[in-house]
Amino acid sequence: MTNIPEVLTIAGSDSGGGAGIQADLKTFQEQEVFGMSIITAVTAQNTTGVQGVHPVPLVMVKEQWDSIFADFNVKAMKTGMLVNGDYMKLIAAAYRELNTIPLVIDPVMIAKGGHPLMEEQAIAVMRDELAPLATVITPNIPEAEALTDMKIETKQDMREAAKRLHRKGSKNVVIKGGHAMDKEQADDLLLLEDGKEIWLSAQRIDTQNTHGTGCTFAACITAELGKGKNVEAAVRTAKAFILAAIRDSLNIGQGHGPTNHWAYNKEKK
User: Fold this and answer.
1) pLDDT tens digits for the chain (269 residues)?
2) ∠246-157-168 over CA atoms, to 5°?
3) Which of 20, 85, 100, 161 is the most exposed place for a label (fewest CB within 10 A)?
4) Active-site residue 75, yes or no?
């Protein structure tokens, strides 16, 4: 019997299927790992925005955690939407008891349509309690600005932000360049635990169908870490995965449509 890596996502549910738990599980499936989930919130959401957020009670989040770790051999895990500081503190405390499983943190703050997904006071908890536990943290530029309290306008600013997150405890940092000013390139910076700096460049694709890109990118990293890949290899695969997912647009919905989760493997055939 093949030993299938078991990986976990802790995030919110997206009723539109393009982001959150749904995007993570689709990505896990495509990357041939077994996906499990802890749902932190249920959202009423489509490609045009978020119409409602209903947090799952904290006690139920902990019950999901206990249930999974009582039975499954989790090889890697990620966090996405965590609602507020109380949820972050719960996950941080539970994770500290393990502390050996790779943890990928996607510090989800704002939905593609502009709806805030993280309460303002929770940013400090993310910065001080959860982010320092990360094996890999994957903020976009606005999220990195919030976590480092600095403006990011240049590649040098991206370097400095990554170093600040590194100094706070995040072992490996990816600053995603999708929000950068460069209209031709989307350059991501990977700062590895040993201080090695790697730039991952891709031509910018002119499309509004980018809903769930952050979730999908972090989920692919998680899947690859679950397979035993090193961080650099995992991030490079995730960059190729999300590039294919954006390039092969689905054109679903009337707003920011979802990415195509099967595009990467379709291209490989």
Assistant:
1) 468 999 999 999 999 999 999 999 999 999 999 999 999 999 999 999 889 999 999 999 999 999 999 999 999 999 999 989 999 999 999 999 987 899 999 998 765 554 555 667 788 899 999 999 999 999 999 999 989 999 999 999 999 999 999 999 999 999 998 655 556 677 999 999 999 999 998 877 888 888 889 999 999 999 999 999 999 999 999 999 999 999 988 889 898 888 999 988 888 77
2) 95
3) 100
4) no
Sequence-separated (6 or more) residues with CB below 8 Å from residue 57: none
Domains of the chain: 6-268 (3.40.1190.20)
Distance CA 175, CA 191 (A): 8
Is 196 assigned a catalytic role? no
Catalytic residue among 171, 176, 227, 239: 176
Catalytic residue among 85, 214, 226, 257: 214
Q: Catalytic: which of 112, 177, 215, 237?
A: 215
Question: What would the two tokens of residue 260 be?
Answer: 């195509």
Question: Which tokens go with 262?
Answer: 């099967």
pTM over 0.70: yes
210 is catalytic: yes
